[in-house]
Design goal:
The chain is of the alpha/beta class. It has one domain: TIM Barrel. The protein contains twelve helices and eight strands. α4 links the parallel β4 and β5. The chain is globular and about 45 Å long. This is 4-hydroxy-tetrahydrodipicolinate synthase.
């Protein structure tokens, strides 16, 4: 459930900027058919920072409905205000999600003790498994391994999405947590190496447009077949790079649309010729 290729799912929009139910179903069906282990609904790639609170909740519930038990759904529930993160998390307590992905508070840049108290408070308001999410390039806040180690002692904090791209973090965190604490990469470009060092999966942007390849790579890595997994990853490296030529999720939403999976709307780009060059 919390291993393998977990897609950080885009939130497809129609031409009016509303969530596109038809495209969302296509995306979910695509991941079910291609071996994706689970879906993260409304994480960074799902535009958690820019959806309204109502849209945020509605997208997660729509994803659950359309998944219909065929694939586990993890809800993105992070916020930079502790009370807001608690409220989002409580909304999904009895919804059917298998866990929550909770990002470090962004913009207000708390101390390490502040981070500990923030995540501790959230965990106290739910029985759902909590996956910490560290992405300092987005939040301006880096949760250090020592803080992760403290939080890992809380019963329902079960893992972390570590998206720094710093592979030394795998060893540093593993030294401070129990063997059953889940380490997931949040950086496609280094995800293969992360797994070889002891991670158990990738929460992937690339999986939105290369679901089978990411699922196969993670499956092989989990089986210890690293040469075969690395061969797949080498083929994916140009795609990993192209999906970040503009801020995520602009390129991946364009890719989903090009594959007939996404909605009609994606963020405006400066030059049509430029974005055509991605293909």
């Amino acid at each position: 459930m919390f291993t393998g290729s977990i897609v950080a799912l885009v939130t497809p929009m129609d031409e009016n900027g509303n969530v596109c139910r038809t495209s969302l179903k296509k995306l979910i069906d695509y991941h079910v058919a291609n071996g994706t282990s689970a879906i993260v609904s409304v994480g960074t790639t799902g535009e958690s920072a820019t959806l309204s609170h109502e849209e945020h909740g509605d997208v997660v519930m729509m994803t659950l409905e359309l998944a219909d038990g065929r694939i586990p759904v993890i809800a993105g529930t992070g916020a930079n205000a502790t009370a807001e993160a608690i409220s989002l998390t409580k909304r999904f307590n009895d919804s059917g999600v298998v866990g929550c992905l909770t990002v470090t508070p962004y913009y207000n840049r708390p101390t390490q003790e502040g981070l500990f108290q923030h995540f501790k408070a959230i965990a106290e308001h739910t029985d759902l498994p909590q996956i910490l999410y560290n992405v300092p390039s987005r939040t301006g806040c880096d949760m250090l391994p020592e803080t992760v180690g403290r939080l890992a002692e809380i019963k329902n904090i079960v893992g972390i999405k570590e998206a720094t791209g710093n592979l030394s973090r795998v060893h540093q965190i593993k030294e401070l947590v129990s063997d059953d604490f889940i380490l997931l990469s949040g950086d496609d470009a280094t995800g293969m190496d992360f797994m070889q060092l002891g991670g158990v999966g990738v929460i992937s942007v690339t999986a939105n447009v290369a679901a089978r390849e990411m699922a196969d790579m993670c499956r092989l890595a989990l089986a210890g077949q690293f040469a075969e997994a690395r061969a797949i990853n080498q083929r994916l490296m140009p795609l990993h790079t192209k999906l970040f030529v503009e801020p995520n999720p602009i390129p991946v939403k364009w890719g989903c649309k090009a594959l007939g999976l996404g909605g009609d709307r994606y963020a405006a780009l400066a030059d049509d010729a430029y974005h055509r060059s991605w293909s």
